[in-house]
Design goal:
Helix content: 55-70%
Order of helices and strands: HHHHHHHHHH
Number of strands: 0
Radius of gyration: 18 Å
Largest sheet: none
Shape: globular
Strand content: under 5%
């Protein structure tokens, strides 16, 4: 992996770990040892969006997961917790990215539009997983335990639907 990609892996990991913080271009550029302006240009070229748009997109992703996989919390609380100032602002941005209102998405999540918008991050995620994968197996003995399994067959971008079916079954 190139030094260039390493910088962006570090940025994505930092953003994901600090989504609740006030993230700005100056702070993020210091992490990469690049000037603010050069970092902004490099990030825009690498991801196809500005670094602030990247932060907003990652917060929107977290909000979508909260809507799809957690019954607790109303939509306004999720919107406020993810940096939106109002239900209307959140709904407008959400519908732009998912082609569904937050309440419609909660009822029947469709991740297809999301994967299109999130493609640059997904590609980087794949590189991170390949570069950091360590396969150290350890045998652990424990008493027999009943488990539930739901196999996912199909395109990886449809995994969210399988997860939702499993959660509904579990409930």
């Amino acid at each position: 992996m190139s030094k260039h990609e390493d910088r962006f892996i570090k940025i994505v990991s930092y953003i994901e770990a600090n989504l609740d913080a006030d993230l700005d271009v100056s702070e993020l550029s210091r992490l990469t040892c690049l000037s603010k302006f050069h970092f902004h240009r490099q990030c825009s070229a690498f991801f196809g969006i500005s670094v602030i748009s990247l932060v907003k997109l990652m917060r929107l992703k977290r909000a979508a997961y909260q809507l799809a996989f957690r019954d607790s919390g109303n939509i306004l609380d999720i919107a406020l917790a993810n940096g939106y100032e109002s239900h209307e602002a959140f709904s407008r941005v959400f519908k732009k990215h998912f082609a569904l209102s937050p309440s419609d998405f909660r009822e029947s999540p469709d991740w297809t539009p999301w994967h299109k918008n999130y493609e640059p991050i997904l590609k980087l995620r794949g590189k991170i997983m390949r570069s950091t994968a360590e396969f150290n197996a350890q045998i652990v003995e424990f008493p027999n335990t009943n488990i539930a399994v739901m196999e996912h067959r199909g395109a990886p971008n449809l995994l969210g639907k399988t997860i939702q079916r499993f959660i509904n079954w579990r409930k």
